[in-house]
Design a protein that fits this description.
This protein is α/β, with parallel strands linked by helices and about 350 residues long. It is built from 13 helices and 11 strands. The strands form 3 sheets. Strands 4-5-6-11-9-10 form a 6-stranded mixed beta sheet. The chain has a 3-stranded parallel beta sheet with strand order 1-2-3, with helices on both faces. The protein has a two-stranded antiparallel sheet with strand order 7-8. Strand 2, helix 2 and strand 3 form a beta-alpha-beta unit. Helix 1 packs parallel to helix 2. The longest helix has 19 residues. It is globular. The relative contact order is 0.16.
Amino acid sequence: MDVDTGIDDALAIVYLLSRPEVEVHAITCTAGNVGARQVALNTLSLLELCGRGGIEVATGAEVPLQVPLVTTEETHGPQGIGYAELPAPAQPISERHAVDLWIEEARAHPGELTGLITGPLTNFALALRREPDLPRLLKSLVIMGGSFYYQGNTTPTAEWNTHVDPHAAKEVYAAYRGLPEDKLPVVCALETTERIEMRPEHLRRLGEAAGLPEPELVLPEQPEGLRSTAANPLVACLSDALRFYMEFHRLYDQGYVAHVHDAFAACAAAGRTPFSTRLATVDVEADSPLLMGTTVADFRGLWGLPPNARIVSGNDPDACFAELVGSVGALARTLGPTPGPAKG
């Protein structure tokens, strides 16, 4: 995984940890929602919360390839995980650089690793510069990013991850041009990830799946900033993170919902939710001030260039949430309630 944790990145990480058949081999961190070091600390704390310390977490690019870094604390909170507060991790950040980790692990496990990138593509672009054969060394790649003939969420035409580092995205798509179809990245873009709207009912169902004795209520009529009282530490963490995200979406007239883009990408990478794809040749506008970060898909071969992406063209939100709620709830159930103070 390559992440910029991030509320929806956090849900994606927790989901993959909840799947017994999925091995999270390593996690690399890039600056995006927050700075790269904070991303790594968030990620390590989440792993330890889920009882999965020991997974290597490395930092990588601190800034995009060519443009200044822009972070988005107004969307994800000052630490990147909304209202959630996690203790500092015991495990240190890896001494390896994220780019070294990508290359060394892909070479050591050729054809075995699925890459999942839920943040800007900076680390992966830098890795491709040093190891152009990386697309063939990976089993597959799933990217959350872009918007194709669909309203952007950062500018009128650009999605956040791509807009943060458009030059990196342009290099990544160029590196996949002409590869076999099964090696082309699966691209989860806004037109399908914004269909994955987490609502208060999903958090209530998550609490039920975790075995909470009382309903987990995150509701639009409640005061902003309210904290969860759930005894289960994972449910409380996710509720506090997602409440912040829902309040943000409401502020921008999108309703009391949370678009959990990265969680859908994680389900897709794990092969646990239905979706369809459409072959396209993708390029990214990296120079125009007006259209910076805009992703363009040629579905009809008008450019005369081979496809370099499989863009998700359809998905099933109900099936995705059934998978997320059931699987994350089962993991939360194993963690049990937070121990109370000892009684004399």
